[in-house]
Amino acid sequence: MTNEIQPLSNAQKKFLRKLGHGLSPVVYIGKEGLSETVVVAIDEALEYHELIKIKIINTDKISKQEAADRVPELSKGHLVQLIGKTLLVYRRNKNKKRDDQIPLPKK
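Structure (tokenized):
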């Protein structure tokens, strides 16, 4: 058994995009770029919410595409969507009760 993260299916991404539509960003990547503090904030937000929006503002340290590549890697999550300067990221919290987890559709 490997520890690789299983990719999300198109149906699962579509479901998560629908859930994420009404969310407000909970983490902002600012002038410091992807600092350790920002990475910790992303990790904590994913632990609590499972699905979060991250907004990239006023930064020349990291491009939106770099953030889209690095954030899922650093957080061990999935990039669901990149629109403008907003990332939608998902990571299942296996420590939550099943009823409290986001119920993903079958692949």
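The radius of gyration is 14 Å. The first helix runs from residue 10 to 20.
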